[in-house]
Design a protein that fits this description.
The structure is a single chain. This protein is α+β, with helices and mostly antiparallel strands and 511 residues long. It contains 13 helices and 23 strands. The strands form five sheets. Strands 7, 8, 9, 10, 11, 14, 15, 16, 18, 21 and 22 form an eleven-stranded mixed beta sheet that branches. The protein has a four-stranded mixed beta sheet with strand order 2-1-3-4, with helices on one face. Strands 5-6-23 form a three-stranded antiparallel beta sheet, with no helix packed on it. Strand 10, helix 8 and strand 11 form a beta-alpha-beta unit. Helix 1 runs antiparallel to helix 13. It is elongated and about 105 Å long.
């Protein structure tokens, strides 16, 4: 009888063993698949930037302009941060820098180039500083970020990666908000050191040891913003004294006359004319930015008139086609006419042609005559509803579309080659105010001006990168937290699944 009962139980036990074994095999396969997937994802995260930026302001991600520039990189670049990485990661905002530089490295690997990022403790490894110092005239110290390639060095500083709104006014503090401009700093440095044909710019900011634009700090602020636009896009800018310094055609490709408050004497005018003529070789460029204030500029006006350009003693207003824009240099809001592009060939293709270009307190820049010696064009125009107001505040009867940026070219042909010198006149220095120039998510001023200057100089590798406004409360992970999450996802969760599977198996087996 007992033998019969034992025989009867054998199939049942075999069936339990069979299904139990299948459960173990299935659980093992699921765990193995989860582990493998997590390992593959971890490897991909090191190769491709598939990390999800959960911060509300997207502070760790790079913009499309930078990503495209990195993918087109065909040169190896070194980025040396003169600060220990663990120290940077311990600060709320400075921790952005290592995380963003990691994205630079990853995106560059998609192209032909490579970016090597290293962190240096200058007290322990001073030889690294010496390596870069021989290519740089300034000082490299703690906090410096060195970008190196092709025996060229660009240096910025960790502190310059961030600005606050109360730093953007010479007059009074505003509500404090932190802006990150580090992506523009780093990307422009990379483009600069990898540019095989840099453009050298002489900015005539001084005249006989006095500021060309006078003592008005609002104008100075905009002039510095214009210089930063060029410098951050690979132009090698040097501030000169237009009266005492040499304007060498061998050294400079472009000269900038920024909002002069005083007239130039005949010697300076001759210097500018010789520079543009370049011994009949041409190939030189001049950008003239009009002062917002009335001044007797007889010689300067005659110089511009020879290039068929005239600057009127009035402001352009437009009650219908306008934007009330904040002008940080003036610490005020100004009704700014919206302008349209009239010379698309000079401006070229914009990253986003839907954004408005505005001209606050702009003076009309007109073409005086159709001189056969020059090729002229009105680059930016106001609407037909615009009108003029004289600089002294009196009303003008003149209405209609006005040019606020004009271009004049003089060409010489030799065989199939054409050599050209250009004069570009911009009607408002406030078109380069940082609130307008840096805010490229709202305005197109920076792209329009930069594209036009690129067209004149033949420069191609320039991009404008918007600043990021950093919100005070964000979901940001430290390096330790990130590592902890990785351990949990790759190891802890699979182990929990294994433990649960074993528990289910044991329970079912003992039923």
């Amino acid at each position: 009888m007992k033998n019969n009962e034992t025989a009867a139980k054998k199939p049942k036990n075999f069936k339990k063993f069979k299904y139990g074994t299948m459960s173990v095999v299935v659980i093992a396969l699921v765990v193995a698949i989860v582990v493998v997937i997590n390992i593959i994802v971890g490897m991909l995260m090191n190769r491709y930037p598939i990390k999800v930026d959960l911060t509300a302001d997207g502070r760790y991600e790079l913009c499309d302009e930078t990503i495209n520039a990195l993918k087109e990189l065909d040169t190896d670049v070194e980025i040396a941060v003169m600060y220990p990485e663990e120290t940077l990661l311990s600060y709320t905002y400075y921790q952005m820098i290592p995380k963003i530089l990691e994205n630079y490295k990853v995106y560059a690997e998609a192209g032909k180039g490579n970016i090597e990022v290293k962190y240096v403790d200058t007290t322990k490894d001073p030889d690294v500083v010496s390596k870069y110092s021989k290519y740089y005239n300034g000082t490299i110290s703690d906090g410096s970020i060195v970008v190196y390639a092709n025996e060229k060095v660009r240096v910025t500083h960790i502190s310059s990666m961030f600005t606050t709104s109360n730093q953007q006014s010479y007059y009074q503090a505003q509500d404090s908000s932190i802006n990150f401009i580090g992506e523009s700093e780093i990307t422009s440095a990379i483009l600069s050191v990898t540019d095989a044909n840099p453009v050298n710019v002489a900015i005539a900011s001084m005249m006989n040891q006095a500021p060309v634009f006078g003592e008005d700090y609002s104008v100075l602020y905009c002039v510095q913003s214009f210089k930063e636009l060029l410098s951050s896009n690979g132009y090698e800018c040097t501030e000169i004294d237009i009266m005492t310094d040499e304007l060498s055609t061998e050294e400079y490709d472009l000269v900038v006359i920024p909002a002069p408050a005083y007239d130039f004497n005949e010697d300076i005018i001759t210097k500018l004319e010789d520079f543009l003529y370049n011994d009949a070789n041409y190939g030189k460029n001049l950008v003239y930015i009009a002062s917002p204030y009335e001044a007797e500029l007889t010689n300067t006006s005659e110089f511009l008139a020879k290039w068929d350009i005239g600057v009127s003693d009035a402001y352009v207003f437009d009650d219908k086609n306008t934007i009330t824009a904040t002008i940080n240099a003036l610490n005020a809001t100004v009704a700014s006419p919206i302008v349209t592009i009239n010379d698309t060939e000079a401006v070229g293709t914009l990253p986003n042609d839907k954004l408005p270009t505005i001209a606050p307190l702009a003076r009309p820049v007109s073409i005086l005559a159709k001189n056969t010696e020059y090729v002229t064009s009105e680059v930016l125009m106001t609407s037909a509803e615009s009108y003029l107001r004289n600089l002294d505040g009196t009303e003008s009867d003149e209405t209609g579309s006005q040019s606020v940026m004009a271009l004049s070219k003089r060409e010489r042909a030799e065989g199939f080659d054409v050599y050209t010198s250009n004069v570009l006149a911009i009607g408002s220095v406030f078109m380069t105010d940082p609130s307008i120039m840096l805010n490229t998510s709202a305005y197109n001023n920076a792209n329009v001006i930069l594209n036009t200057i690129n067209t004149l100089t033949g420069k191609e590798s320039s991009i404008v990168i918007p600043q990021k406004n950093l919100q005070q409360e964000t979901l940001a992970l430290t390096a330790a937290q990130g590592k902890g999450i990785m351990i949990i996802v790759i190891f802890v969760i699979p182990l929990i699944v294994v433990a649960a599977g074993i528990a289910v198996f044991v329970r079912r087996r003992n039923r």
